[in-house]
Please model this.
Amino acid sequence: MEITRIGEGFGRWDELLALILSSFAYMDDVIDPPSSAHRLTLASLAQKAREEIAFAAIEGGRLIGCIFCKPEQGFLYIGKLAIAPTSQGKGIGRRLLSLAEEIAREKGLPALRLETRIELTGNHATFARWGFAKTAENAHPGFTRTTSIEMQKRLD
Model:
């Protein structure tokens, strides 16, 4: 498996969008509101990659994972961490997060930050095993109940 930066010459936006949608599909009847992944288009995904730091995991010429990282005040925000359903459980997510940790350190950012939906308790447990701790509960606009949690991982 190789991990490559998603840059100007990437050109595999349709595959990347399909990867994200297939990776997030299990959430469709579980979370409310629906995932923002459903609002992605080829153009908005390309724009997201220009504005953020993105990487793709490729195996046998096939896209099997991705991560988007956005520097913020005091954090590197992790978004759209997606692993192909047939490639989950093989350490790809962990490798992509390790790369995010390297980027955070290079930028002098002391922590990673992510958000995950309140209903996705399996994700909470996985991120906790990877060193993340819950730091906040949030509600999407128009909701009076908690819809997501924030988790952070402090870097040494």
Summary: Helices lie at 13-24, 42-51, 92-106, 121-129. The longest strand covers residues 62-72.
